[in-house]
Amino acid sequence: MKPIVSLFIICFSLVGFSQTVDTYTYTVKGMDTLKLDVYTPEDILPDERLPVLLWMHGGGFSIGSRDFIDDAELCKYAAQNGYIGISISYRLLRKGTTTGFGCDCPKEEKMETFKQAAIDYLDAAAFVVANAEQLKIDPRYIIAGGSSAGAEGTLNAVFMREYFVDHLEKYQDVQFAGIFSCAGAVVNAQYITKNNAIPGVFYHGTSDGLVPYGTASHHLCAPEKPGYLILDGANVIVDKLESFEMPFYVHIVKGGGHEVSAIPFTELDKVFGFFNQTVLGNEVIQTKVIKTKRE
């Protein structure tokens, strides 16, 4: 792979903390030039290599951007707390479509959207791994993360690459060390095995009407609708991880809807603390937090 070239660098201060933001093009697909923003501590040592949060924004595969304020703030937080934060763009394949991504969107189109999102994510990860030295990241410690559609994209990339990807050799050097999912689901949790299970943080509402908390149809579509597609949400995924004695932290909101997909800024210390203990420290921690939605 050719050396990467920074498109721009922005330097700024946050309460005495300085960092740089570099933007790179990781691939071009048709009319889509896909980029990623890399948030790096300015005071990183020359030989230092940090774990990385590789983040995929939400938006129903039709809206959103890698530099949306919340996604940018998350990556800034990562860079302030011992990580490099990377936020990626990907193809918004449902943008401008007449059926959107709900119950009128045919199941086949939903599956193709999930597939291409997973591939875009894996392409971004492959770019990061190939340029690890220049980006100053440790490729052994890539935390995959996303919210809503981004969580679906990352979960499918992490656990179902064998299902969605035709040329697996392209990603043979890509390994994920952890997963951070805000209201995400995987197409089929049976693809989560002892061999590919990794420590995970999950936030989900039990009454999510878009991305199911358990095993249910996407957007809760009725069986007769074109978009009827069964997915496995956080409850099923965590059960799989628990059966493999894999570390997890799950935050369940009883009665919570899709608003739980929002980045949990007030709990990021717990999120990154979990990854520090499990991914970096090899501890086995299994925590379930159950709260009830306030009316």
Quaternary form: single chain
Largest sheet: 10 strands, mixed
**Unreliable stretches, pLDDT < 50, 5 or more residues?**
1-16
Percent strand: 25-35%
- Would you identify the CATH H-level superfamily? Alpha/Beta hydrolase fold, catalytic domain
Give me the number of helical elements: 7
Number of distinct beta strands: 13
Gross geometry:
globular
What is the CA-CA span between the terminal residues? Answer: 53 Å
Would you mind describing this structure in some detail?
This protein has seven helices and 13 strands. It is globular and about 60 Å long. Helices cover 26% and strands 29% of the residues. Helix 2 packs across helix 4. The chain has a single domain, classed as Rossmann fold (3-Layer(aba) Sandwich). The protein has a ten-stranded mixed beta sheet with strand order 1-2-3-5-4-6-7-9-12-13, with helices on both faces. A three-stranded antiparallel beta sheet has the order 8-11-10. The protein starts with 8 loop residues before the first strand and ends with a strand. The longest helix has 24 residues. With 295 residues, it is an alpha/beta fold.
